[in-house]
# Entry
Amino acid sequence: MAKINSYIKVNKKKFKIQVQKKDINLKKKNCILYNKYGSNLLKKIDWNKKGYSIENIFTLPEHLNNQKKISNCVKKILKIKNRNFSIENYHYCVNDADHLRTIQKTRELKIDVFQSIKDKIYSYLNDKYKISFKKNKMIKKEIALLRIHRPKKNDLNPPHRDGYLRCWSKSLNIWYMISGSFKNSALPIIPKSHLVNEKFIQVTRSNSKMNGTKYTVPIILRINNKNMSFKIPKIKPGQVLIFSPFLIHGFGKNFSANKTRSSLEFRPEINE
Ligand SMILES: [Fe+2]
# Structure
């Protein structure tokens, strides 16, 4: 079967992305999807052109407390008895099969597990940007995702835009890093990429495979016929990355040698 390769640059390293030629989406529109389908409230915000912002939401003690909560939640899932278990050391406690089982559960945690974390983030955004959120009618239940990426493993997802899935187009992406190496392992993003016209983007259809693994969200291969270069934003413990669902992000390889990266993701719909 014919394949298409592209390369992306992240953390000064080059990675190959391979998809099947038959999966490439050839019916692309000549428009900027963010302008057409994105939230009008986000368009009025001061970081609109950049497509993302880093917010100081939790103090260091609050952050460490959040980390403890998450560690306890994962400890329960893994049925670990060690009282000192920390999410940063998760990779020492699981094999590949355990990990797959765990991420099935952490992908769709009930929101009440993280209610206090969520409340603080939402009320901060409401105070600062006058943004509030409403129920997303296109999804069955509100979810909080806990992403877990082990070091030295290919725990990653493809370069993508959540906004390609219509249910997320009016939402705000909220990404809160819980553990890992804050120097080099935050979520890779391409600043301003939410404003790139579709005609310049080479992308697959939904449910295509990247390097042999199938993903729901369409996989982005190139912009303007060029390989993509990602930026890893500098995030400190307690800070939260917020961004447009049309900003290209992903391929979040964990570059740390010995720390599991975990992050909480919320994707609430903006109340307009
Ligand atoms: Fe995403």
